[in-house]
Design a protein that fits this description.
The protein is of the alpha+beta class and 157 residues long. It has 2 domains: 9-41; 45-154, no CATH class. The chain is built from 5 helices and 6 strands. It has helices spanning 60-70, 78-94, 102-116, 118-128, 134-156; strands at 11-19, 24-31, 37-43, 47-49, 55-57, 99-101. A 3-stranded antiparallel sheet has the order 1-2-3, with no helix packed on it. Strands 5-4-6 form a 3-stranded mixed sheet. Helix 2 crosses helix 3 (102-116). The relative contact order is 0.10.
Length: 157
């Protein structure tokens, strides 16, 4: 890290603190040459590898945008989409990898979307799970019904 005042390449860390809910670290540094202090922010990066091979930074807004299309015409609020995107990012970061395939991001979205709205889940799943026939949709719908019936049976007891 170069000193922003004298451009010296050597500095020492005076203080470190977590910032932004632990997603980054704020470091207070002091230049060994001029003695002036400055602050740096360090954050972990999460990259998404697209189908084309291009790598780009993970973006919650892109998750929200993709899910918003599946939720079109459904009773889903913007806050719900923001929470879903946060859940997805946390799940991906918990894997401990710096790069993830775009398809894996899509598959990670499925579980929280299933809880949020089942119709939107089916729309989204049809793309990311590669539904090719009506039978694929029927299997997904049967799975949703079985899950719903299982929850209803639990409530009776």
């Amino acid at each position: 890290m170069h000193c922003p005042f004298c451009r010296n390449a050597d500095s020492r860390v005076v203080d470190s603190r977590t910032a932004e809910d632990g997603a980054s670290i704020r470091r207070r540094r002091q230049c060994t040459a001029c003695g002036r202090r400055f602050t740096t922010m360090e954050a972990t990066s999460l990259s998404v590898i697209k189908r084309s091979g291009v790598t780009e930074e993970f973006s919650r807004s892109k998750v929200i945008s993709g899910v918003r299309k599946a939720c079109q015409g459904r009773p889903v609020e913007e806050d719900d989409l923001a929470k879903l995107a946060q859940t997805v990012e946390e799940a991906i970061r918990a894997r401990g990898v710096a790069e993830i395939d775009a398809d894996e991001v899509g598959l990670t979205i499925l579980s929280p979307l299933r809880e949020l709205d089942q119709v939107a889940y089916l729309r989204f799943a049809s793309v990311y799970q590669g539904f090719e026939s009506l039978e694929d949709f029927e299997e997904a719908i049967e799975s949703l019904r079985a899950e719903r019936d299982g929850r209803a049976a639990e409530k009776e007891f």
